[in-house]
Amino acid sequence: MAEKPQTSPRSSTPTEGFLVRCGQASNPGERTFWFIGRKRADFETAQCLIAALAERYPRLDILFTAPDLETREWLRATYPQAVVLPPPLPFAYIANRFLINLNVRCLMILGDLQPGDRPILRAANRRAMPVAIGQMPGGGTPPDARALGAGPERIEHHFVLDGAAADRLAAAGVARERITL
C-alpha cells in the first residue's frame, strides 16, 4: 500500500517529493517571506527574528526550505502555521517557479551560501525582490564568493559582525564602502 504524501497544513498540496522540488508547490496566501537554511542550527539562531516577523506581520506567510528531512520535520513541529518544503532544484526556471507559485515577496538565506543558491538569487534579482543573507557567527568558514559562479550577483550592501568578515568580502572583490560593521 502506497503511503499518502505529506501535505501543507493549509492546503492539500504535497510538501515533499520531486514535483515539489521542481516548483509545483503553491501557497494560498497573499505574500510569503522565504527562509532558506541548511541545518537546524541556522533556523534556531534566527528564531527571535522569525517570531518578531510573525508577530509584527500576522498576514505574512512564512516559508521554510531545508535539504534535510529531520530539519524539515523540526520546522513543521516548531512552526505549525508555516509552509515547510524541500529546497528547489538548482535551476533558474525552477527557482523562478518557486517565487511565483509561492507568492514570495522577500527571502533570507540563513547560514552559508551554496552554489545551489545562485539560481534563487538570480530569480529574485530579476523580480527586484529584497534578499538578506544571514551568516551566523561560529557557523564554520564563510564561503568563497567565487564559488557561486563567474559573474558577481548584484548585492547593494553587506552588513557583517566583525572585521575578519569584512576582510574576506574585500578579498572577494567587494568595495569597502559597500561593507558595514
In summary, what is this structure?
The protein has seven helices and seven strands, in the order H-E-H-H-E-H-E-H-E-H-E-E-H-E. By secondary structure, it is an alpha/beta fold.
**Ends distance:** 57 Å
Q: What spatial order of strands do you see in the largest sheet?
A: 3-2-1-4-5
Count of DSSP H/I helices: 7
Largest sheet: 5 strands, parallel
H-E string: HEHHEHEHEHEEHE
The percentage helix is: 25-40%
Low confidence ranges: 1-5, 8-13, 147-152
Q: Which structural class do the helices and strands define?
A: alpha/beta
Q: What is the residue-mean pLDDT, rounded to a whole number?
A: 79
Q: Using the alpha-carbon principal axes, give the shape.
A: globular
**Percent of sequence in beta strands:** 15-25%
Question: Quaternary arrangement of the chains shown?
Answer: single chain
Could you tell me the number of beta strands?
Answer: 7
Rg calculated over all Cα atoms:
17 Å
Could you describe the 3D structure shown?
The protein has 181 residues and is of the alpha/beta class. The protein has 7 helices and 7 strands. The strands form 2 sheets. It has a 5-stranded parallel β-sheet with strand order 3-2-1-4-5, sandwiched between helices. It has a two-stranded parallel ribbon with strand order 6-7. Helix 5 crosses helix 6. The radius of gyration is 17 Å and the shape is globular. It starts with 17 loop residues before the first helix and ends with a strand. Residues 1-5, 8-13 and 147-152 have low confidence and may be disordered.
